Structures are given as C-alpha cells and as structure tokens.
Amino acid sequence: MARDTLFNTTAPVEKFEFNEQVAEVFDDMLDRSVPFYKQVIEMTAQILGRSLVEGDTVYDLGCSTGTTLLHLARILENKNLEFIGLDNSKAMLDKALRKAQMFSMGDRIVFSEQDIIRTDFSRAGGVILNYTLQFISPGMRLEFLKNVYRGLRHGGVLILSEKVICEDTVFNDRFQESYYQYKKRRGYSELEIAQKREALENVLVPLSSRENKDMLLRVGFSRVETFFRWFNFVSLVASR
Ligand SMILES: C[S@@+](CC[C@H](N)C(=O)[O-])C[C@H]1O[C@@H](n2cnc3c(N)ncnc32)[C@H](O)[C@@H]1O
Predict the structure, then answer these.
(1) Which residue's CA is minimally distant from atom 8 of ligand 1?
(2) Contact in structure between 60 and 124 (CB atoms under 8 Å)
(3) pLDDT per position as a tens digit, 97-119
(4) Cα 170 to ligand 1 centre (Å)
(5) In angstroms, what is the span from residue 15 Cα to ligand 1's centroid?
(6) Which structural domain, as residue segments, surrounds residue 224?
(7) E strands along the chain, which residues?
(8) Structure pTM?
(9) CB under 6 Å to ligand 1: residues?
(10) What is the spatial distance between Cα 126 and Cα 190, in angstroms, rounded to a whole number?
(11) 9 assigned to some structural domain
C-alpha cells in the first residue's frame, strides 16, 4: 500500500480533490485518518448480513477504491447478492477494479462512474454511504437522502458514516484535539495535519450527529440508531 505523504509540503495548499494522486495513496490515507475504519466495515457487514435477503442488491455510494464491497463480497458470499459501487472519480474506480481483479472478485462487483446525486435505483436491500455525504453540498443532502430512501425496498437498510461536529463548542474543540493526537500517533506530522485541514476547508462540511439523524428521519426512515461513535466520527444505521 503506497504511503500517504501528499500534504508533507509547505507549498500553497490546493482544494482537496479525489484525483489520481489521492487515489494512489487513498487506502493508506483512510487507514491512518479514519479511526476504526476496518471495524466499521466489519460492523457494516454484520448489520447487512442480518437484514439482506437472497438476491438483494447492495450499493456503495462513493465506493472509492472498493475496500468495503470487497470485504462484503467475501463475508456475505453465500447470499447470492449483487454488489454495485458508484463513484464519480475515475482514478478511484480504476484502483477499485485493479483490486477486485487482484482478489479474483472482478465478476462479483460492478463498479460504475456516476454522480451519486443523479443516480436512480430501486428495491435495493442495502445502501452504504461511508464518509461521502460530508462531501455533498449541505443544501443538496436532504433531496439526495430522499432519493436514497426511495431506492431502498421495504426493510432495506442504509449505513451512514460521517465525520461530525459537536453542538457544544468546548467538546468540539476537545474531540478535534483527540483526533489530531490520533493522526500524530498514526504518523502524520503537524505540517501534514495542518495542510490537509486547509485543503478540506469548505470541501468536507460536517454536520452534527443529531442533524444527520434528523435528516434520515425527515426523509422517511422509520428507525435510526448509532452503532459506532469515536469522538467526532459516527456511524448510523437506518431502516426503511
Ligand atoms: C471519503 S471517500 C469515501 C470512502 C469510502 N466510502 C470508503 O469507506 O472507503 C468519498 C468518495 O466519494 C466520492 N464522491 C464525492 N462526491 C461524489 C458524487 N457526487 N458522486 C459520486 N461520488 C462522489 C469521491 O470521489 C470519493 O471517492
């Protein structure tokens, strides 16, 4: 796995994009920047494993390099499921395809270049939206989630993971500090942390956990629950 050193530079920071350079180091970037990334994927697999039925389709919206779907296709292989990963970054999808071929999963997962805001699907058993909603313009999130809700069958499940802010500013600062300490322990320098933070300004726009939950309830999900939280990272499950 190529090491992420993208922000180890004092050069003026450009707006963060999911381009080729990012795709090349993305797996290392997530592994070292998203706390409990692998555990959230395992929990996602467990939750979906209990709700999916034979022949269901599972969508991963903003699938990046396909790590989650590759794991699910392995763990849930006896349910005859269809796996579809959508992303609008060609560089990410190229990497996903290469990984799928490397693990002999090329025929088990479909990867497609699409804008998830404009995607239409129906009767899905599961939708995964891990660390992607935060990159969609806040004003478009409710309409987008309505579309996701409509795309699920009755009893279908959405997994939503996000970086969040706290409503209390003191806790927000303390949680943020815990996150920076985490990144330092994972080998990022202060320069790298500061440069990436600037690149993500107004690109990654986090809401609070409550705001995310409220949106899910407003679009119609009947049940919403938190299944994971680490300081300012939250994973929710919602059932139609
Ligand atoms: C932080 S990454 C998601 C990580 C991935 N879900 C995982 O858990 O490994 C966000 C992804 O969303 C994609 N993305 C952002 N906006 C999108 C859009 N409008 N349509 C499709 N993909 C989008 C980006 O290209 C990127 O690959």
Answers:
(1) 130
(2) no
(3) 999 999 999 999 999 999 999 99
(4) 30
(5) 15
(6) 20-169+205-239
(7) 57-61, 82-87, 109-113, 124-130, 152-163, 223-230, 233-239
(8) 0.97
(9) 18, 30, 62-64, 67-68, 86-89, 92, 115-117, 130-132, 135-136
(10) 39
(11) no
